[in-house]
Structure formats: structure tokens, C-alpha cells
């Protein structure tokens, strides 16, 4: 790993001290590790998110690591290459987001809850006899994939492959891999894309009440076989939707359980008072936001927080820092599920606000209800402390070893 990536990984493992220093420094702070200006205060974060015309999302998913030539050659055999909804602006963003909004309405989320409840019970039931478990691998990375997979319209047997492909895509673009591993990761990504493409073509012939059909209908209106261009765009959006629906929820499940168990008195509170679970969800999302932020790029010269930014300047809009802003939250570094409700930015704000936040929160609610009822004695394994994943896109424990 080169020095830049090593410095970035160290920064990502615990960004909160860096955030604090930036909030205490006048103007914006340029962070070499991110190669961007850090937008750290809640007021400034909201200002950027209110100005999508001045702060474009075109660089939102800029990779930390550019794959090598051989891996890129493998990727060229797949589907994709189109700008995702989180990295688009204006009319293009509205067009790409429309099927997501229609597929994740309150009614659609409500209709998914019986299945989610069933999966929570099944996954937890499989864990109980062991007396110990690694909850990221055995629970938090499985439930969200199953739920978003069902909403998409995937067969249950195909969900593990597409979830694994999503993780491989993230590793390929945001983790240092040797050339051979890059090629293997690219092959897994391409396999996932071909699987998603096969679903899109099947839904073209036989539409159903699912998100894949909604996406095909919205992005390729009409009849007849999909063109290669349409297949590329649809596969890109389905891949992004799958990743967004899975990663954020998985991270939120992991960090919420981690902080409740680290602050044992808080866990005991929701065991004794389940009515506090909604407040615990909001506090966990605020305290350690699963999506720490996204990049933006200026489309013209702008003044932000007293700092003059030229056109083409990259900024990192830090939701995680805004949620710890001392001017917006009292005692922001304290994890307290009994605090008065706080208007946080864990799911973004404005036109790019997360459309799936209700689905994520419902899965977390079902999880906390089931775990506190059936595993009130749940504890972190003192012999295997949790470590965080070095990622700003979905901050979560890499592993979460527990005993009961």
C-alpha cells in the first residue's frame, strides 16, 4: 500500500478527531488524504446540499484506487459504466431517481415488513444455539441483502451472489488489492452484472411488481428487446440500487449494535424499555453515521464558510462531522438514546437524501426488538474487540464478535 492510501486508511478508521479540528478551524480545511476540502460544520453541510447546481454530484463515487489495466479489461466484458443516481444531477438525477422513489414508497416498505420479520426470526434463530457469533457476517450483512433482493425481485438463491458482487465492486474501487486479486474481483463484478442483466431482460418480457420491472419500465420505455445501451444503463442502476440498499443498512445494523453494547447501560435501557428503540435508532444514526459523506465538485467559483473555492474544486461533505457539530448538538460525542430528538444528517438532505432510509430504519427496529427480547444478555466478546472498516461510504465494524 502506498503512503497516500496508508494515510487515508488511518484517517478513515477514526475520522472524528479530524472532524473536530476542522470545525475548530476558521474556514474550510483541505485534507490531503481525501484530496478535497472538508465541509465539517452542520450549517455548511446543509448549505452545500441545498445548492446542487453549484455543488455537482458528478464526483460522488470517485474511487480511492483505480483498477489496473487487466482488471479494467475484465470489467469491459460486463454491463455498466453509466453514471449512478448518487453521481448525477438535474434532469438526469430526477430520471434515475424516479423508479427508486416509486419502488420505495411507505406502502412498499410496509408490504416488505412481514418478510423482513420472518428473516429476522430465521437468522436470529440460527444464531441462538451457538452461544456466540460474529454478527456482521452472520446477520448484519445477510438481512439487508435478503430484504432489498426481494424488493428488487431477485430469487432468494441469487441474493448471496449479487451481495458478494457488490462487496467485490467496493473492494475493487476503494481497497488496495494486488493485480491478481483485482482481476478476480473484476470477474465477480462482471458475473453479478450479467446476472442483473438477465433479470432486466426477463422483466422486459414479463414485467412484475418489483423494482427491477420499475427500473426497466422507467429507463427503457416501449417494447421489444433492450438495446445494449439500455442494458448497460439498467445494469448500472440496479447495481447501485442493490449496493445502496444493502451497504447502508448493513452498516447501520452493525454500528448500532456495537455502540449499544459498548455502552452497556444504554443496551439495558432498551431491554427494559422497548419504547426507547426508535430513539436508539436515531441516536445511533447520528452518533456514528453509516454514510460518513459524499464528494461534490464546484461548477463555478463559490464562497463557502469564508473560503473561496474555484470551479472544479472537490469538497467532501461530511455528514458524520455535521452530526457531531457542537453548535448543532449538545454533548455530541456522548452516545445517549434518551436525548431530545436531534435533526441529523445521517441519511443526507435535499434532492440527494436517501430514499431508502425508512426501509433501513424498519430493519433496524425489527432487529432491536428481536435481539432485546431473545438475547437480553448479549455482550461484546472481550477476547475479540471490534474493529472498524476503513470506509467513508459505509462505516461499520469489519467484525462484531459477541457472546450470550
Please outline the helices and strands.
Elements: H1 3-13, H2 16-24, E1 29-31, E2 36-39, H3 42-50, E3 55-56, H4 69-75, H5 90-103, H6 106-127, E4 132-134, H7 135-140, H8 143-152, H9 159-174, H10 179-205, H11 211-219, H12 228-262, H13 264-272, H14 277-287, E5 293-298, E6 302-304, E7 307-309, E8 314-318, H15 319-322, H16 357-374, E9 379-380, E10 387-388, E11 397-399, E12 401-403
Parallel strand pairs: 2-8
Antiparallel strand pairs: 1-2, 3-5, 4-12, 5-8, 6-7, 9-12, 10-11
Helix pairs in contact: 4-10, 5-11, 6-8, 6-16, 8-12, 9-10, 9-12, 10-11, 10-12, 11-12, 12-14, 12-16
Family: Belongs to the cytochrome P450 family.
InterPro entries: Cyt_P450, Cyt_P450_B, Cyt_P450_CS, Cyt_P450_sf
Keywords: Heme, Iron, Metal-binding, Monooxygenase, Oxidoreductase
Amino acid at each position: 500500500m502506498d503512503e497516500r492510501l496508508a494515510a487515508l486508511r488511518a484517517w478513515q478508521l477514526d475520522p472524528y478527531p479530524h472532524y473536530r479540528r476542522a470545525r475548530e478551524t476558521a474556514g474550510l480545511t483541505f485534507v490531503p488524504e481525501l484530496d478535497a476540502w472538508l465541509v465539517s460544520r452542520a450549517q455548511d453541510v446543509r448549505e452545500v446540499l441545498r445548492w446542487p447546481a453549484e455543488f455537482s454530484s458528478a464526483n460522488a463515487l470517485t474511487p480511492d484506487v483505480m483498477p489496473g489495466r487487466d482488471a479494467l479489461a475484465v470489467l469491459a466484458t460486463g454491463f455498466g459504466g453509466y453514471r449512478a443516481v448518487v453521481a448525477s444531477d438535474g434532469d438526469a438525477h430526477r430520471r434515475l431517481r424516479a423508479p427508486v422513489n416509486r419502488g420505495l414508497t411507505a406502502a412498499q416498505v410496509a408490504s416488505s415488513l412481514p418478510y423482513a420479520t420472518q428473516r429476522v426470526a430465521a437468522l436470529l434463530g440460527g444464531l441462538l444455539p451457538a452461544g456466540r457469533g460474529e454478527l456482521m457476517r452472520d446477520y448484519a450483512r445477510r438481512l439487508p441483502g435478503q430484504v432489498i433482493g426481494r424488493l428488487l425481485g431477485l430469487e432468494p438463491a441469487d441474493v448471496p451472489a449479487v451481495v458478494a458482487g457488490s462487496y467485490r465492486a467496493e473492494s475493487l474501487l476503494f481497497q488496495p488489492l494486488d493485480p491478481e486479486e483485482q482481476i478476480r474481483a473484476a470477474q465477480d463484478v462482471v458475473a453479478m452484472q450479467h446476472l442483473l442483466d438477465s433479470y432486466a431482460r426477463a422483466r422486459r418480457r414479463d414485467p412484475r411488481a418489483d423494482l427491477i420491472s420499475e427500473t426497466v419500465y422507467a429507463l427503457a420505455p416501449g417494447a421489444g428487446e433492450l438495446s445494449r445501451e439500455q442494458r448497460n444503463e439498467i445494469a448500472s442502476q440496479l447495481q447501485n440500487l442493490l449496493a445502496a440498499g444493502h451497504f447502508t443498512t448493513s452498516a447501520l445494523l452493525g454500528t448500532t449494535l456495537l455502540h449499544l453494547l459498548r455502552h452497556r447501560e444504554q443496551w439495558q435501557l432498551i431491554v427494559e424499555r422497548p419504547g426507547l428503540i426508535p430513539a436508539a435508532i436515531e441516536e445511533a444514526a447520528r452518533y456514528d453515521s453509516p454514510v460518513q459523506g459524499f464528494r461534490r465538485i464546484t461548477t463555478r467559483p463559490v464562497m463557502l464558510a469564508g473560503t473561496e473555492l474555484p470551479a472544479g474544486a472537490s469538497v467532501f461533505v461530511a455528514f458524520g462531522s455535521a452530526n457531531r457539530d457542537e453548535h448543532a448538538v449538545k454533548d455530541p460525542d456522548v452516545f445517549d438514546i434518551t436525548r431530545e430528538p436531534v435533526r441529523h444528517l445521517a441519511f443526507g438532505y435535499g434532492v440527494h437524501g436517501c430514499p431508502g432510509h425508512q426501509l433501513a430504519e424498519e430493519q433496524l427496529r425489527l432487529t432491536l426488538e428481536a435481539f432485546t427480547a431473545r438475547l437480553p444478555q448479549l455482550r461484546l466478546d472481550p477476547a475479540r474487540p471490534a474493529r472498524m472498516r476503513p470506509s467513508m461510504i459505509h462505516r461499520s465494524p469489519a467484525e462484531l464478535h459477541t457472546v450470550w
